[in-house]
Amino acid sequence: xxxxxxxxxxxxxxxxxxxxxxxxxxxxxxxxxxxxxxxxxxxxxxxxxxxxxxxxxxxxxxxxxxxxxxxxxxxxxxxxxxxxxxxxxxxxxxxxxxxxxxxxxxxxxxxxxxxxxxxxxxxxxxxxxxxxxxxxxxxxxxxxxxxxxxxxxxxxxxxxxxxxxxxxxxxxxxxxxxxxxxxxxxxxxxxxxxxxxxxxxxxxxxxxxxxxxxxxxxxxxxxxxxxxxxxxxxxxxxxxxxxxxxxxxxxxxxxxxxxxxxxxxxxxxxxxxxxxxxxxxxxxxxxxxxxxxxxxxxxxxxxxxxxxxxxxxxxxxxxxxxxxxxxxxxxxxxxxxxxxxxxxxxxxxxxxx
Length: 353
What we know:
Layout: H1 2-7, H2 15-26, H3 29-33, E1 36-41, H4 49-60, E2 80-85, H5 90-99, E3 104-108, H6 109-117, E4 131-147, E5 162-164, H7 171-182, E6 191-193, H8 197-205, E7 211-216, H9 221-229, E8 232-234, H10 239-248, E9 253-257, E10 268-280, H11 285-295, H12 298-307, H13 329-337
Parallel strand pairs: 1-2, 1-3, 5-6, 5-7
Antiparallel strand pairs: 3-10, 4-7, 4-8, 4-10, 9-10
């Protein structure tokens, strides 16, 4: 039985799983059966979700045989093994949680909101009401990347161009279409493709596309690498069109991609949305409490800050900002204990908006 479980887990990256396989070889069957497994749906390699998810999954895990937290070992949930699973992104993650094929995942706040209420891209498939929140993580910026010699200076210049709107199943596609719409560009005005961040970077370098969208915390690894070998520009999102987006979509806010995030690229105005960590509603409350406590442990904060620039933006002070779906009772219990909530979570959760 344990072998069957692991066979389905081997597509998820993380040294913690390799370590666990070795541990299981030496553990008795009773100990092995006490292990609990937990997947975090992230995004495509080259984005921000995947590296952040890898750090979090390691931080909240505590396999048998780990050194105690106070002795420099694991500060995660005892007997618990989490792993970061590469996915297509926000839409893919919320649908997988809804279908029960993922225990948790990351999502843009707007995608979580629409999924929970059956709106926007979920209007035809229906609401996903078993989504619950663990935490708000960090702001994600809309990047519109083009070659510097392309002559593309505004979103409206994408007319007649070859543009990747982001991978199917990602929140990027939804944001890209919303942005193009306020600039008056419809499907027939450009040649659209749907590429992963790394593939989009390669095709831009090779001249096969003219621009691509990606929504993620800056800096994005794939764009950093691209900027070292190709002169690129970030197309600004500002002015009347940006104001229209902010009024139309309450989860958007104005933002800046700072100078230095990418080689040779100056500060660029854009819009951004929060990235949030979601979990299935029926996940055990005590387990989610333990996960939340381990996530906000000071050692986890150090790991996140050292692993990615966006890790420094993950903090308890903004943990509940813009939460788009109900908090999981286990997470709510932790936030009440640390003073982030003024009232304890109800003994029975109210299901629904």
